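Narrative progress, year one. The postdoctoral researcher (J.K.) led the effort to move from monomer predictions toward full complexes, under supervision of the PI. The following entry was the first complex the group processed end to end, covering 619 residues in total.
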Amino acid sequence: MDRVIEVKNLKTTLDNRVIHNGLNLTINRGDIYGLLGPSGCGKTTLLREMVMLEKIQSGEIEVLGQNLNYIKHNQAQKLRQEWGVLFQAGALFSSLTLKENISLPLVEYTDLSTKMIDEIVKFKINIVGLKPSDAHLYPSQISGGMNKKAALARSLAMDPKLLFLDEPTSGLDPISARDFDNLILKLRELFNLTIIMVTHDLESIYGTVDRMAIIDNQKIAYEGSLENIKSVESEFIQTFFEGRYE
Amino acid sequence: MKKDYLTVDSIDTKLSIKFFGEFNLYNISEYENRLDKIELTKIKTIILDFTELTFLDSAGAIFIDNLENEFLSKNIVVDTICDNSIVLDTLTLIKKEKDNEHKLSTKKEENGLIKVGQLAYSNYLGFLSFMAFMGEMFATKFHYLRSYKNIRFKEIAYELNGSMVKAFGIIALTSFLIGLVVAYQSAYQLKLYGANIFIVDMLGISILRELAPLITAIVMAGRIGSAFTAQIGAMKITQELDAMRTMGFDPYKFLVIPKIIALMIAMPILIFLADMMGILGGMVVANIDLGITTDLFLDRFNEVVAVKHFFIGILKGPFFAFLIACIAIYRGLMVKNDTQSIGINTTKSVVESIFAVIVCDAVFSIVFTNLGI
């Protein structure tokens, strides 16, 4: 199997608190990979380390064959164009309209004509389920669900191979959240994406995730598919999945 | 008649406290005052009577529990009369929770010396991190300027509009008024000596050389410094800076350097405007108060004010601009993940940049005087 991300023996300390200690995980191509765990266990920190927002203190992370510890500036720039990141609050650029937000990477990184870029933006807006008329709105003018969709469209702008999602369904109503899950599944079909998501949403885990890692007590408490989860001895897992396996 | 109250009756060594109505957050302090006044020395037994109590909230229950413990510690027997199961449940719940609650860790009191030391050390670290910011910018980011393609003309133009064009009004007005005030104050003194015409020398040198650059820099520090800090700080909180980084857009290239360059271009132009308006203000006063006509003023100006004063004033512009922009952006990047730190950092940004501008001006003053310029 083809490995997309490999984390080896990761150790992280934030403000004298040990977050990860000897954390290992592997993510295969084409997976929808869930990162779970109690709050404060460092899921988002792990995600931030994978996308080079946090420095790796100890241990190794390899993304698409590049070791992030020794990566050169140019390779890092190239890598950044091969992934998309959806932040928890969307993080659309507030001074730009949705269309400008989505087209920004295309304008900066490619020499496509304006007409071509418009076509691509229109396609991306369509695929995430926004209306073309929304394209000229500013992020402050749209609802939370639209914000997430637009941010997803922006992260898909460069047709990435990897998609990082930080709590994609948090703050959405249950119907929008299920729509979002379906959207994620559809996107994987369409673009053959590998998706890594941090989530708390049980429905979303059962609906979309192929494999997952549960971080508890600074380590991976479980890594694998949903089927074997109930055999794991962990307080968090027992409480979290209790409702479904009785 | 009040619904909620308590009665205290004492018979020999027995004291009975009876609660009526509801006992909740709002009447605790009243009850506490009453119970504090009771003389306990002779009391051997206390009866807490809850039969008429209709409702007990958790604060009231904690109060009663504390009261019982206090009485027990004074060797007083406490009897409770209660037939309301809800009240009893509340009391037992509080007792149970109090037993297994952990002591809240109290903050350690530190003496003044430690605080001073910590303050000094954190200021030292702050200075180091500003130096690290400047170092990073010079060492790794200015290489963007080596290639013509990397200069973001659109962003620079946008910033120029914000920092220069929109500041014309306020800079013109402030410097006009400063010229007016300085001239008006000195006119009175000069009249005493009959040295009216020297107002031209005085105004020319002081405004061109010192006042116009300084006033412009201070207004810009307040206007642009705070704006830069708040904008970058807010972008940090909404994770827009993170989003830029993950997309491979270096915030330095897109936000920081265009802002610095735009302000460095804007400042000399604004100082030139301030020069003109300041002199104009002085000219108006000279005309009205000292009877120096505009022609005479300009003739004298041409004669006595060397052009070097003008150039020194303009030259200060880019330096002040660089300091203001760097401090403002650094402060913006220092914003942490809470809204309060935007306010703190904006204040710091303005104060520090005004301070830096004045220090820089003092350095210029010494250097130019020693060079004989």
